Amino acid sequence: MIIDIIVSALGESVSEATIAKWHKKQGDSVVVDELILELETEKVTLEVNALSSGIISKILKNEGDAVSVGESVGQISEGAVATPSPTSDKILKQDVSETSKIINPTFPPSVRRLVTENQLNISEINGTGRDGRVTKGDVLEIINIPKENKLPNIDATPTNELAVERVRMSRLRKTIADRLKESQNTAAILTTFNEIDMSKVIILRASYREIFEKTHGVKLGFMSFFVKATIDALKAVRSVNAEIEGDYILYKNYYDIGVAVGTEQGLVVPVVRQADQLSFAGIEKEIIGFGKKAKEGRLSMADLSGGTFTISNGGVYGSLLSTPIINPPQAGILGLHKTEERPVAINGKVEIRPMMYVALSYDHRIIDGKEAVTFLVKIKELIENPERLLLNI
Q: I need a labelling partner for 168 at 20 to 30 A (CA). Which of 151, 178, 269, 282 fits?
């Protein structure tokens, strides 16, 4: 029986994808749930697994080809078995034996693929996931970056043809480029800056870090403070939580906060839903959960869809100052940066304080300069006096 390999639903408002990589060749054997290929959409990479055992009898679409939902990209001859050559029979039997171990359902497909491709012993990898499970990140640390991402060791002189590596832009990277350029072309983007004395929030976090983690099972980070402060500022300055729709301005009375996360494929923005209804611990759990999903390549379309405002933390990479680009159709984005000790004037005296520059890029079509400055000052006041966040005043 012939089974079509169909492109299933890709997510909200996404109808097309690109074949990023075939993990099987025509004539290869597959077993149920084994990874066959990867599809790349404008937001995430999706894995396609075999629905039945057999052999790949036909490959209808090649790597780099665009495919649509419902389209057949190949076929599986159900129940068929690939015939090994005499010289590879011993190796094939060993590979099948090892694969049966790797196909343990507790391991995600991405982990099984990396372990198989790099001929690793899964039992020798220390898992950092829930209940000690091996994650994609654990495997990547063992193999030290996927081989396909490593640049060749070449003489990078202008006269050397090998000094240039031509790589097709991924759908995610192309979409990021298109959306950012669209943002610049469409919105009237301005950026306003301020600086925040992080002293009090650092002391507060250090004082309660251990008991917070014991009580809630999650570490107390700085991002939850900024998410809380941002929500209060959005409530005070409604235009920053708005968007333009034709001749109308949509003022949103809910707070779904996007938190920018860097992945191997590019920057993505998972959304903390109804963040105003969450506690500090709830926000931290959401953010950590997204970080793990990103590391393991498990972010879904639902995780990335929507969002009323975005926070981007370039400080984790060491950025001291930047002008973030708005994530359309949102009207603003808050950029956080590296906390660095600097001399500042305090009550007529010079003191060394841990200071952070913050930036608000905003769409000047619906946000006036006064509103933008008011928004950023509100965040500054709350972070410099975190007890107000805790007391909701």
A: 269
- Residue 43: what pLDDT? 65
pLDDT at 150 over 60: no
The full length of the chain comes to 393
208 — pLDDT class (breaks 50, 70, 90): very high
Residue pair 56/35 in contact (Cβ under 8 Å)? The answer is no
At residue 101, φ and ψ (nearest 5 deg) are: -80, -40
Identify which has the larger pLDDT, 85 or 28: 28
Indicate the residue type of 200. K
Give the CB-side neighbour count of residue 117, counting CA atoms within 13 A: 20
The CATH architecture of the domain made up of 1-83 is: Beta Barrel (2.40)
* Integer Cα distance of 112 and 134 in angstroms: 10
The three-class DSSP label of residue 58 is: strand
Domain residues of the chain, as ranges?
1-83, 85-168, 172-391
Backbone angles phi, psi at 251, to 5 degrees: -90, 120
Residue 265 phi, psi dihedral angles, 5° rounding: -85, -20
pLDDT tens by residue, 25-42 = 999 999 988 889 988 876
Q: For residue 313, which amino acid is it? A: N
CA 375 to chain CA centroid, Å, is 27
CATH topology of domain 172-391: Chloramphenicol Acetyltransferase (3.30.559)
- Diameter of the chain measured on Cα atoms: 86
| Residue 4 a catalytic site member | no
Identify the active-site residue in 65, 89, 178, 364.
Answer: 364
List, as one string, the DSSP characters of 186-232.
HS-EEEEEEEEE-HHHHHHHHHHHHHHHHHHSS---SHHHHHHHHHH
Query: Rounded to two decimals, what is the model's pTM?
Result: 0.65
User: What confidence tier does 309 reach under pLDDT thresholds 50, 70, 90?
Assistant: very high
Find out whether 363 and 244 touch, Cβ atoms under 8 Å: yes
337 is catalytic: no
Render 15-81 in DSSP notation, one character per residue: -EEEEEEESS-TT-EE-TT-EEEEEE-SS-EEEEE-SSSEEEEEE-S-TT-EEETT-EEEEEEET--
Residue 310 has pLDDT above 90, yes or no: yes
The distance in angstroms from the start CA to the end CA of the chain is: 67
pLDDT value at position 154?
A: 44
